[in-house]
Every structure is written in structure tokens, then in C-alpha cells.
Write a structure and sequence with these properties.
Layout: H1 7-24, H2 28-33, H3 39-47, H4 66-79, H5 81-101, H6 104-110, H7 112-115, E1 121-124, E2 140-144, E3 147-158, E4 165-171, E5 181-187, E6 193-195, E7 209-220, E8 224-225, H8 231-265, E9 269-270, E10 273-274, H9 279-307, H10 313-338, H11 349-359, H12 366-378
Parallel strand pairs: 1-4
Antiparallel strand pairs: 2-3, 3-7, 4-5, 5-8, 6-7, 9-10
Bound molecules: acetoacetyl-coenzyme A (CAA).
Acetoacetyl-coenzyme A is lined by residues 85, 89, 93, 123, 125-126, 132-135, 156, 158, 178, 232-233, 236-237, 239-240, 313, 362-364, 368, 371-372.
């Protein structure tokens, strides 16, 4: 067992921490307030090879490991949670399944430009009636010669308004339930692909999401990702990796809240002394720091397992469950330390509470993570 990061892991952490301090922290509040897509930051993520961190160099990525990815996700999300999830969607939910299930021809066209960050990808699983129950897909793909005709809709698609392509899950055989789901790679300029304006949300306001409709949309059969009927496994194994990214995002949000509260506790006085000299505040800081470290260990364990090619459904679910709920607890405690100022839009504490909350919902709610964990623990 070794808790020491490698030289390259340290280097990635340092580089992303400096980038966040310079480019993200000074802008995150403004982007959130104006619901402004962080155009320059996303461009710079591409320049820093952060949009295809674990994609091999052959396919346009940085060729690093999942631990590097988790370290970078934490730092980027520490600077701006919205930028963090944009990075996570392109890396984990788009590039990862194309790398794992795509043919070489698909990788050439639909992976390399996305891993280089010239284009952005998104993940189309959620539907109005298929959120937690991901197998209840209603978007239908019907084969017609060498093409599929797709009709249906997806909603809450993070990065959807800006994406150039989507990994889209459809039902090709309704009677076969989860074994009738098939994935396709679909460029968003395909005829019949219609996007709605960005959703209005409680947090991560700079990371746009939207609903989209597919109307008689024709997709070549060669765009099928994996085999027909294999889509549910494509989705679930993708989410095993995605949940590591979201857990790392939660770490970053919690760290932002924690570090700002610790700093404030050394500035603010009450009852004749700094508030950090009160035991009530000291105990909060002790709990926050301990929970952050515990969450980070779960995240890094899941990342190491993914790097070793080991099935990590349970460990990723544990990391996502604990890190997301921890982030909400820590962000709320941080706001409490700020007192009335924490409730003000002039500070970042309230944004961290709003940003943390979504990590308990997307890429599987906390309840879904508990289902995955208990199903793994109770299987014979
Ligand atoms: N890897 C590979 N295969 C898997 C798998 C995995 N992680 N998990 C399940 N499977 C396989 C199973 O082995 C099983 O195959 P067999 O029948 O051949 O044995 C099959 O899939 C069905 O598995 P389950 O019986 O466990 O499926 P289920 O329907 O009972 O439950 C669930 C699945 C865990 C509840 C699942 O539906 C789920 O994870 N739901 C949440 C969906 C989710 O996370 N959505 C997030 C959307 S993306 C998003 O949020 C993006 C964003 O905005 C940033």
C-alpha cells in the first residue's frame, strides 16, 4: 500500500492547482451569476490536455491514468465546479466509452478530436421517464437498410447545448428490456437532432445542460457503439468511471468550501477572539478535514482499480456516495462558519452549497449508489 503520488501525478496536481488559482477561482462566481459558459477556460483545458486525460496519446489524449484524472478533476472543481463537470462529461462519459467500445474508424473520427478538445462530447442516457431507472428507455431506433431511424428525447444532458457529438442510448428491442438497448455515436448536426435552450438550475450554472429531441433522425449503422443490445452495459460500465469523476468533483467543491472557511476563521472575531479559537469551530474544522480525507481515499481506491482493469462498480459507487454527501455536509458547515456572510451572494460559500447538491443526484442518485453497493455486497 502506497499513499505517495507518483512524480507525474504530483505534476498534474500542481499544474491544475495553479491553473485553477489563476483562471478559475477569480471567475467562477461571475460565471455562476450570469450563467455564462466558461469558453476560455474550456479552451485552456484543451491546451493543457485535460479533455482526454486517460485517453492514449495515439487517440489524441494525454495518455495518463485515472488517478491523474481524479487529481485534476479535484483541482479544476476546486476552482469552478461547472468547469469541472464539463471536463468530466467529455473525459468520462464521452471519450471513455468511445475508447472502450469503439472501432478504430470510430476512434479516428469520434475520439481523437474530442480527446484533443477540438470538439466536445456528451452522454444521452437520461429521459423524462428514465432517470434512475435507466433501462426504461423510450427513445427508439428502428433499422432501415444500413441506417437506423431514431425518434425520442433526452433531458438534463450536461454539455448538450455545446456538444458536437453524443453517445446516445436507444431502445432497439423493447421486449428485451435492458438487453434491447443499443448505443450510437451521433453528431449533433445530424438532421432531426433538435436542442432546447439551456436548463435553469440551482447550481453548476455555467455548465449548460438541455433537453433534446430526435425526429426521424437517420444514423448510419456504422455509428453503433458496441454491439446491438449491449447498450445497457456500455452505459453502466461508463458510469463506473464517470462516478469517479463526479466524486472527485465533489472533493474539489468541498475543498473550496473548507479552505475558505478555515481562512475566514482566522480573520473573524467574536466574543473577543478569533472564531477559530472557539472549540465549536475547531470541531467543525476537524470533522470537515477528516471527511475530506476519507472521501479522497475512496476516490483514489476506485481510480487505482480502474487503472488495473478491475471491476470497480462497488468502489466507484462508494466513492461517489460518500464524497457527494460529504461535499454537502462540508459546504453547509463552511457556510455556517461564515454566519450571515455565508448567506450573502458576495461570498462563495452559498455557491458551494448549491454546487455540491447536484453531486448527490447526477450520474446516479445517492439511492442508486446504495442499490449498486448493496447488490454487490449481497451477491452470492
Ligand atoms: N458494468 C457492466 N455491466 C453491468 C454493470 C456495470 N457496472 N451494471 C450492471 N450491468 C449489467 C448486469 O450484469 C446485468 O447483466 P446480465 O443480465 O447479463 O447479468 C444487466 O447489466 C442489468 O443489471 P441490473 O439487473 O443490476 O440492472 P437494474 O436495472 O436492476 O439496475 C441500476 C441498474 C443500477 C439501477 C441502473 O439503472 C443505474 O445505475 N441507474 C442510474 C442511472 C444513472 O446513473 N444515470 C445518470 C445519467 S448520466 C448523468 O447524470 C450525466 C450528467 O448529467 C453529468
Amino acid at each position: 500500500m502506497n499513499f505517495e503520488p507518483s512524480d507525474i501525478q504530483k505534476e498534474i496536481q500542481k499544474m491544475t492547482r495553479e491553473f485553477a488559482a489563476r483562471e478559475l477561482i477569480p471567475n467562477a462566481r461571475k460565471w455562476d451569476e450570469h450563467h455564462e459558459w466558461p469558453t476560455d477556460a474550456v479552451k485552456q483545458l484543451a491546451e493543457l490536455s485535460l479533455l482526454g486525460v486517460a485517453v492514449p496519446e495515439q487517440w489524441g489524449g494525454a495518455g495518463l491514468d485515472t488517478v491523474c484524472y481524479a487529481l485534476a478533476m479535484e483541482e479544476i472543481s476546486r476552482g469552478c465546479a461547472s468547469t469541472g463537470v464539463i471536463m468530466s462529461v467529455n473525459n468520462s462519459l464521452y471519450c471513455d466509452p468511445v475508447l472502450k467500445f469503439g472501432t478504430d474508424a470510430q476512434k479516428e473520427k469520434y475520439l481523437a478530436p474530442f480527446a484533443r478538445g477540438e470538439k466536445l462530447g456528451c452522454f444521452g442516457l437520461t429521459e423524462p421517464q428514465a432517470g434512475s431507472d435507466a433501462a426504461a428507455q423510450e427513445t427508439i431506433a428502428v433499422k432501415k437498410g444500413d441506417r437506423y431511424i431514431i425518434n425520442g428525447s433526452k433531458n438534463w444532458i450536461t454539455v448538450g447545448p455545446k456538444a458536437d457529438a453524443m453517445v446516445l442510448f436507444t431502445m432497439t428491442n423493447k421486449a428485451a428490456a435492458n438487453k434491447g438497448i443499443t448505443a450510437f455515436i451521433v453528431p449533433t448536426d445530424t438532421k432531426g437532432f433538435r436542442r432546447m435552450p439551456p436548463d435553469k438550475k440551482m447550481g453548476i450554472s455555467a455548465a449548460w445542460s438541455c433537453t433534446m429531441y430526435f425526429e426521424e433522425m437517420e444514423v448510419p449503422a456504422e455509428n453503433m457503439l458496441g454491439k446491438e443490445g449491449e447498450g445497457f452495459k456500455v452505459a453502466m460500465s461508463t458510469l463506473d468511471g464517470g462516478r469517479i469523476g463526479i466524486a472527485a468533483q465533489a472533493l474539489g467543491i468541498a475543498r473550496a468550501a473548507f479552505e475558505e472557511a478555515v481562512r475566514y476563521s482566522g480573520e473573524r472575531k467574536s466574543f473577543g477572539k478569533l472564531i477559530r479559537e472557539h472549540q465549536a469551530i475547531q470541531f467543525m474544522i476537524a470533522d470537515m478535514g477528516t471527511e475530506l480525507d476519507a472521501a479522497r481515499m475512496l476516490v483514489h481506491r476506485a481510480a487505482v482499480m480502474k487503472d488495473k482493469g478491475q471491476r470497480n462498480s462497488q468502489e466507484s459507487a462508494m466513492a461517489k456516495l460518500y464524497a457527494s454527501e460529504m461535499a454537502s455536509r462540508v459546504a453547509n458547515k463552511a457556510l455556517q462558519i461564515f454566519g450571515g456572510m455565508g448567506y450573502s451572494k458576495e461570498m462563495d460559500a452559498e455557491r458551494h452549497v448549491r454546487d455540491a447538491r447536484i453531486t448527490e443526484i447526477y450520474e446516479g442518485t445517492s439511492e442508486i449508489q446504495r442499490i449498486v453497493i448493496s447488490a454487490n455486497m449481497l451477491k452470492d
